[in-house]
Amino acid sequence: MKAPQYLLLVLLGLACCGWGFVAAHRWSSPRNLLPSLVTVLGVLLLMIGALLTFLPRFFLE
Question: Which domain covers residue 29, as residue numbers?
Answer without folding.
Answer: 3-54
